[in-house]
Amino acid sequence: MDSVTHPNSEINRLLDLLPASWRMYTIVSQRPDQLQAITSTPILPWQRNTHIKINFRLWSSLDVNQRDLLFLAEVAWRHQSRWLQWGTYQLVGLFALAGTVWETIEGDVTGLAVGALLTVIAIKQIDREHKGIKTHLESDSEAIRVAQRRGYTDKIAARSLLEAIQAVAKLEGRQSPEFRELLRCQNLRVLAGSSRVTVPPDAE
Length: 204
Description:
Elements: H1 7-17, H2 20-23, E1 26-30, E2 38-40, E3 50-54, H3 56-59, H4 64-80, H5 88-106, H6 109-131, H7 133-148, H8 154-171, H9 179-192
Parallel strand pairs: 1-3
Antiparallel strand pairs: 2-3
Helix pairs in contact: 4-7, 4-8, 5-6, 7-8, 7-9, 8-9
């Protein structure tokens, strides 16, 4: 019998797909009340885990390859977009926050306002980057690489994730995938070898 009929068995099976460095920071649970097949929480500087929530009624409608790749892509996205990765905007945010604290101590109202504004701008930019198509495309590619270590070929993995994204849109009652999902689907067609039309990283 398919493990998806037994949520605990399916959860254990899915966790076994993950590299050890992801598995130790991933929590999976049932969420029969949610409208989405799979959702997750961001990895924040003060919280190292991502919590994956699955509606097994919807999940059971996907075949095992689709479930594997959809799960890997979700976890990969959270690890690709974790906040504690030092880039330009993370450093700006850190220095702005430190400056804000200093200006608060010094009582400089103007400096405090500027520091707070820079902190907000940096946080918004970080959030925008994390939700952008470039991060999603990188996450999909990472999910495919992990799947290859679990016996999938790159093309089968890409095709399975493509089919999963399309199937989930229908399961969730949407007429078609969202714009970002459409871009991911086109990129997956390229990876699966069924299209040559690539998606620019700044397509959004």
